[in-house]
Amino acid sequence: LDALGAAASALADLPVFAELRSRLKALAGEVDDLALELRRRAEGFEEDPLRLAEVRARRHLLRRLARRYGGQLADALAAAEEARAALWALAAEEEELAQLAGQRTGLLAELADLTAQVAEARRAAAPRLAQAVADRLASLGMEAARFEVAVTGEAGEDVSFLLGPNPGEPPQPLAKAASGGELARAMLALRLVLSESPPTMVFDEVDAGIGGTAALAVGRALAELAQERQVLVVTHLPQVAAAASAHLVVRKEQGGGRTRSLVQPVSGEARLTELARMLSGQPDSPVARRHAAELLAAQQDPSSPSGVRR
């Protein structure tokens, strides 16, 4: 304001600058008004120490963030934007997890329902399977045997086969209740009833403790089982051996201070001789050979009541 007044005074004696002097004086008046207004407004402000402390703390925080994320406030703002995007991604993942949890709950409920259905179906099938096996056991010389199928577990996944081979004996697990021959016949009955089985099966002494008609039935059952898979049978009964499609004889031979086991296939007259030996212990006996021939013909002839169709 003083500089404007000095300039106007310097032009007072110069008529050529009269217009400019008037403008300077007008500017001086405007500046004087501005000074008064600024002074008035400045005097109207009230000091707020708390707000000042907040602003200072804010400025300090911004400087610290700028140093941490690259030195400039723009770097800190860019880092904040990245963090905000990551937070949104986490929120989306949480929403997806919630959806998956809902799907899992639904699937678990469906699984529980299916589990109950499977368990019910298995428990319903158990008596039918037990009866079918018992019928087969009766034809295999175990007429008085009781066979049960115990189904436990949430889905009926625990299945136990129980056998009471003799009258008055409660059914027990096969491993505890059955002898070797009874166990073999129980497994044979199961294989005859069930639709699935291994391609090769071995029966050792499946005919133990039986003879006569039961032995013929066991031979027929084994031959029936062999129609769709390979069945190897260790037997001392001629009725079972006669039902086989191939006959192997196992003998021991001593020589040179050692004992060897020999396996030799027999057919034709040799097989007839072996069956006669198994029947009577006298392979050259005419009666035994005649009986062996009748047995072999009966077991191999599909038209025979006791024969098995191959």
Question: Short summary of the structure?
Answer:
This is DNA repair protein RecN. This protein has 310 residues and is an alpha+beta fold.
Provide the fold topology.
Layout: H1 2-10, H2 18-44, H3 49-68, H4 73-139, E1 146-152, E2 158-164, E3 172-173, H5 174-177, H6 180-193, E4 200-204, H7 212-225, E5 230-234, H8 238-241, E6 247-255, E7 258-266, H9 268-280, H10 286-300
Parallel strand pairs: 4-5
Antiparallel strand pairs: 1-2, 2-3, 6-7
Helix pairs in contact: 1-2, 3-4, 4-6, 6-7, 9-10
Distance between the termini: 132 Å
Structural class designation: alpha+beta
* Order of neighbouring strands in the sheet with most strands: 1-2-3
Taken in chain order, the helices and strands follow as HHHHEEEHHEHEHEEHH
Low-pLDDT runs of 5+ residues are: 304-310
Q: In words, what does this structure look like?
A:
The protein has helices spanning 2-10, 18-44, 49-68, 73-139, 174-177, 180-193, 212-225, 238-241, 268-280, 286-300, and strands at residues 146-152, 158-164, 172-173, 200-204, 230-234, 247-255, 258-266. The chain is α+β, with helices and mostly antiparallel strands and 310 residues long. Strands 1-2-3 form a three-stranded antiparallel β-sheet. A two-stranded parallel sheet has the order 4-5. A hairpin with a 5-residue loop joins strand 1 (146-152) and strand 2. Helix 1 (2-10) packs antiparallel against helix 2, helix 4 (73-139) crosses helix 6 (180-193) and helix 9 packs across helix 10 (286-300).
